């Protein structure tokens, strides 16, 4: 079952807890790819110094203000795309960055796109995910709750492992907010 918009229109940290273990699906002309979400980070509010919304509403942060259940794909360091999921209510800027996946479907296609045979290196970072799944700025704003969408998230298997909470990766401000969660023991996370 594809996650409905109501899944995303809650507190960002609650969405993050429930997001781990769900399955990201990407449909393309080349084929279908999917992976279990094993790591993600939350960004919430204009008072979050690590958020794109910290400077207020800008062209880049506009999509974070809603509606929820949309993809927020941004380009960073002049070379990498990153997939975020818009959360909370409309007009409140919040999103979750997908940091790592455990590959499931379309592994040979992911290997081709990433030019690696190493399964633990396919989706162990937000830029790697976008490369393996062929996600770019053209997907910015697409609904994540429609089977007609090229990207959506569906229910996964019930997880038994606990979540580990740490500071977010690659941020200089807001390190005191332990808003990165990952599945304990997963060999697929981005940073051990």
Automatic annotation (TrEMBL):
InterPro entries in alphabetical order: Formyl_transferase-like_C_sf, MPG, MPG_sf
Keywords tagged on the record: DNA damage, DNA repair, Hydrolase
Gene Ontology molecular function, alphabetical: alkylbase DNA N-glycosylase activity; DNA binding
GO biological process terms held by the UniProt record: base-excision repair
Pfam families associated with the record: Pur_DNA_glyco
CDD domains in alphabetical order: AAG
Family: Belongs to the DNA glycosylase MPG family.
Name of protein: 3-methyladenine DNA glycosylase
Originating species: marine sediment metagenome
Organism lineage: unclassified sequences, metagenomes, ecological metagenomes
């Amino acid at each position: 079952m594809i996650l409905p918009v109501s899944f995303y229109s809650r507190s960002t940290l609650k969405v993050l807890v429930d997001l781990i273990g769900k399955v990201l699906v990407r449909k393309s002309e080349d084929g279908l790819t999917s992976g279990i979400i094993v790591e993600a980070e939350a960004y919430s509010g204009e008072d979050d110094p690590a958020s794109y919304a910290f400077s207020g509403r800008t062209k880049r942060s506009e999509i974070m203000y809603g509606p929820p259940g949309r993809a927020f794909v941004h380009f960073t360091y002049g070379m990498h795309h990153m997939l975020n999921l818009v959360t909370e209510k409309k007009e409140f800027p919040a999103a979750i960055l997908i940091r790592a996946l455990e590959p499931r479907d379309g592994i040979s296609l992911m290997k081709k796109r990433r030019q690696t045979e190493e399964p633990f290196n396919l989706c162990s970072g937000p830029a790697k995910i976008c490369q393996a799944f062929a996600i770019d700025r053209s997907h910015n704003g697409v609904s994540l709750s429609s089977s007609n969408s090229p990207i959506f998230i569906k229910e996964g298997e019930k997880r038994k492992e606990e979540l580990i909470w740490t500071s977010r990766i690659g941020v200089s401000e807001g390190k005191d907010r332990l808003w990165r969660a990952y599945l304990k023991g997963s060999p697929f996370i981005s940073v051990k």
